[in-house]
Specification:
Order of helices and strands of chain B: EHHEEHEEEHHEEEHEEEEHEEEHEHEE
Largest sheet of chain B: 7 strands, mixed
Strand order of the largest sheet of chain B: 6-7-8-9-10-12-11
Helix content of chain A: 40-55%
Strand content of chain B: 25-35%
CATH superfamily of chain A: STAS domain
Mean pLDDT of chain B: 91
Number of strands of chain A: 6
Oligomer: heterodimer
Number of strands of chain B: 19
Shape of chain A: globular
Number of helices of chain B: 9
Shape of chain B: globular
Distance between the termini of chain B: 41 Å
Low-confidence stretches of chain A: none
CATH architecture of the largest domain in chain B: 3-Layer(aba) Sandwich
Number of domains of chain A: 1
Distance between the termini of chain A: 26 Å
CATH topology of chain A: Transcription Regulator spoIIAA
Structural class of chain A: alpha/beta
Low-confidence stretches of chain B: none
Largest interface: A-B, 20 and 23 residues
Radius of gyration of chain A: 12 Å
Chain lengths: 110, 431
Amino acid sequence: MKINLSKSADKAIVAVEGRLDTVSAPDFEHEVKHLISQGENRFVLDLSDLEYVSSAGLRCILVLAKEAKSQGGGISCCRLQGLVKQVFDVSGFSSMIPVFDSLEGALNAM
Amino acid sequence: MGKVALSVFADEVFLPTAVAFAEKAALALGLAQAEALKLTLATEEVFLYLCREAASGREVQMSCRGGGYYVEEEFVFKARDFNMRAFNITASATFEGDSTQETGLLIASRTVDRFKFAESEEGLRLTLVKEKAYPSVVEIPVPAAVPLSEYTLRRPHPEELKVFVRMLAEYHDPQTVPERFRSPGKVVDMVACGEYQTAITADKLGHIGGGIIWRRDNIKLVECYGPYLMNQPEGSSMAAELMEHCVNAIARSGAVGLMDQYPGGQFPAEYFMPLGSLSFPAGDGSRRERMAYYRHLEEDLGNAVWSHPLLQEFLEREYRRTAFAREIRLVDDEGESGSPFSVLSAEFDWHQGSVKLRPIWWGRDAEETLAAHVRTLLGEKLIGIFFEMDLGHPWQTRFTPALFRTGFQPCLMLPYGGKGDLVVFQHTATE
């Protein structure tokens, strides 16, 4: 898994590449919690290059969403592809976290 | 084709090993990257559940087997408890509290095409099946079917088989052709791996007039599909010739019977015993019956079947009518302990608008599970909801009272259709 960070106004864009699974989820959680500790609280997860997410990855996103919310912000996801989109849908995760087709849509809605 | 195996302890330190094993095996056995990734995901979720909940620290035997058009992955383990309720199509995910691990099992069950669960001497046996992805019927013109005055019966080569499959979709009602015969490439692989066999009729110019498909269901039964004729005159002997070709091909196989649940338009019924019918609504609002037929290949020496008392009358009537010698052994709930949760698998045929439920595990919530499935499936506008019970497995008969209470009625007995005879129930809302 690889994480690329960028900013758009007051929002942090976290682009996740590769696989978010049981092994990599703790690293992802650590990285985003570090951003929260530095004052970031609005996150857009760009998942266009994420090929795989397991329940461990979903649980990790949910933990971070709760933490961001407790800091007055939130998390949304965008540009889900293939298996990641299927996993979001079958698990009902799409109804728990705001999901957008485009990065612009996610940034504008937050 | 081929098989690879791994023996590993259910410890999270081995999770990357188990996941890599499944992914590499799936790719080596013929799945494309996208399908291999889905089986990999299912493996991660199941293995993690075994590590954290069901079999922590115990040995797990994993294997992957290629079946030509699918890869089958098996987990064999001795579990303290393995709660499969998340495998029900009615299950929903939760990310709170103790049920979070079940969300992983739910994801696993939704990313594979089929699953089985059974007890064996080695322990519990969970089997996941992921099929190759095939395009549905592609935009290639279907040849016009012409009446054939002279033809031969033969095994088709792969390109002819693909044409035959396209013609099936063009010339035959969806109710008479199973979903699995909708994709030409898949049928070619199913035949190439030896699971199915086919014969067609064709003239010297290669015009196809009809065909038949068959497979060995189990040690005692061969199931055939068709014969399917394309634009052949009424009274043609082609259907009977195709059926005789099939019977000759399986004559020395040791199978006891031949069954056909998908007879074509000119089915040679005179050689068969009618077993009964399933009912489907036609497009014009009327009902259409699809008959099932059986033919003895060898003398039936009789068998014993398990039955709940509520099913006894139906079975006695059917066995009397069809003259099958059966000893009915009654099974009833006598207060013994059982799992609190039941699990069903669901096989959809979207072209027909039907679904076949099969019991995977009996539990005390059987009625609630069945009722939830019916609610969900009727909400999907399915026009046929069926439940298949294998009378060779006594535990399956425990679903009988719940089936009657949730609106199912037995409508068909299929001899040797499983480990024992199968009984097909149909939900009355879709009769």
